[in-house]
Prior knowledge:
The strands form four sheets. The chain has a five-stranded mixed β-sheet with strand order 1-12-2-8-9. A three-stranded antiparallel β-sheet has the order 4-5-6. The protein folds into two domains: 8-53 and 136-253, CATH 3.30.1330.100; 59-132, CofE-like fold (Alpha-Beta Complex). With 264 residues, it is α+β, with helices and mostly antiparallel strands. α3 crosses α4 (82-91). The chain is globular, with a radius of gyration of 19 Å. 25% of the residues lie in helices and 24% in strands. The longest helix is centred in the middle third of the chain and has 16 residues, at 138-153. β4 (92-98) and β5 (103-107) form a beta hairpin. The protein has helices at 24-34, 49-55, 69-78, 82-91, 138-153, 212-224, and strands at residues 8-11, 44-48, 59-61, 92-98, 103-107, 112-114, 130-132, 162-171, 174-185, 190-192, 209-211, 233-237. It comes from Novosphingobium silvae. Its EC number is 6.3.2.31.
Amino acid sequence: MTAVPELTVRPLAGLPMFAPGMSIAQAICSALAAEGDALRGGDIFVIAQKIVSKTEGRTLDLRSLPVSEEARSLAAATGREPGLAQAILDESAEVLRAQSAAIIARHRTGHVLANAGIDASNVEGGDAGTVLLWPEDPDASARAIRTELQDLCGGEGRGGVGVVLTDSMGRAWRIGTVGTAIGCAGIEVLEDRRGWAVDLFGRTLQATVIAVADSLAAMGTLALGEGDEGTPVALVRGAGRWTINEDGPGAASGLRPVSQDMFR
Length: 264
């Protein structure tokens, strides 16, 4: 049997409350230095989407939105505030299901999730109508953070460093949410093992495609927590076999094409 390298994940302590214009990469480098650590080749940082959106100024006051008749109808059908319904429509390519439990939408980036990723938790002013939107382009955000990390931290980390932006999403046939990659850079998004890898009995795998980015996002999210932990970045080590010395195709490459959607 092939030995599997040890995987470790830990949240970075001492990160600030992020605000528009702040550098996530600089905060990560400072946190590593405070721990007596440094960036290493093969390091992968799982970063909560919320702090990326905050630094990019993606807050929205729902009370400021002009509301369309379509939004009013959606709000009435689902028991939501009209402003939130309008924001969901504005952020979505299409609404797939609309119920009181959730509005399932295909975000304009192609990801399918509840309420187009719009959230008020851990957002200052959330009780008064302030919400946070996803980054305009999560893959571009991940690439920018990766580039800045390598420029600022230097050392061994100049090659093979990965960044995964994660948000919690539900799944069609399961209860609960799982951290999911919405943007990434410097890693393989998928590991296609079909046709070359074998099982314990020598049979060639025919259907196995590993969702590497989503698996890293899920592992990182468990370390980050979902409430008031205040740890929005996790460091994964031992997964360097999935890092690459370029930005790579991004999380969008892991989306199933609409033509293959079996749940429509």
